[in-house]
Amino acid sequence: MVKRALAYAVVIIPAAEVDARGLHVCNLAAMRRALATLTTRPEYVLTDGFGVDGLGVPGLAVWKGDQVAACVAAASVLAKVTRDRIMVDLHERFPQYGFDEHKGYVTPEHSAALSAHGPCAEHRFSYVNVATVSGRDSRPPRSRRPAVVGVLDPIEQAIPAGGTVGVALAEGARLPLSVGEDVAMEGGV
């Protein structure tokens, strides 16, 4: 797939940013950031399921886009492969969670590991299952992440790798690209 693509960009948004801003906002930001890294401006953008404002080019939200548009399907594959690789890498740091097997999805094994070990810094504390085992479920979702890394055992120093992934396919981009918060692209925070 990537051999046939003119170019592509992958943007990774860390779990802490997902907790702070919300998953949907971060998904939109990842798509905007991926498009912004392309050296050739696309003439038209297809997105999977929901529209994305602020792209600077016309676009169309395609329901079940990964099933009906090859470019959306290709972007979906890049995002999933990137996430799976990140989860396998996280397994090296946090083997007790079995990230190499369930890739962070809520499975009985993941739930058992969360209950046994508590969350690590790469978990999304805004998610109910993580908040529940951390004892932070009574807080609003965006205030559940501990302010200081190390507050919860076995939290270790976070790496910017396990959040959400956005992908753009066009000419002149590179893979992977990790980008932090971009207030200008998001209209201010």
Q: How does this model look, in words?
A:
With 189 residues, this protein is of the alpha/beta class. The protein has 7 helices and 5 strands, in the order βααββαααααββ. The chain has a 3-stranded mixed sheet, sandwiched between helices. Strands 2-3 form a two-stranded parallel sheet. Helix 1 crosses helix 2. The radius of gyration is 17 Å and the shape is globular. The C terminus is likely disordered. It is found in: Cytoplasm. Belongs to the RNase HII family. One of its GO terms (biological process) is mismatch repair. It is an enzyme of class 3 (hydrolase).
Topology:
Layout: E1 8-13, H1 15-21, H2 23-37, E2 45-48, E3 59-62, H3 65-68, H4 70-93, H5 99-102, H6 108-117, H7 128-134, E4 164-169, E5 177-178
Parallel strand pairs: 1-5, 2-3
Antiparallel strand pairs: 1-4
Helix pairs in contact: 1-2
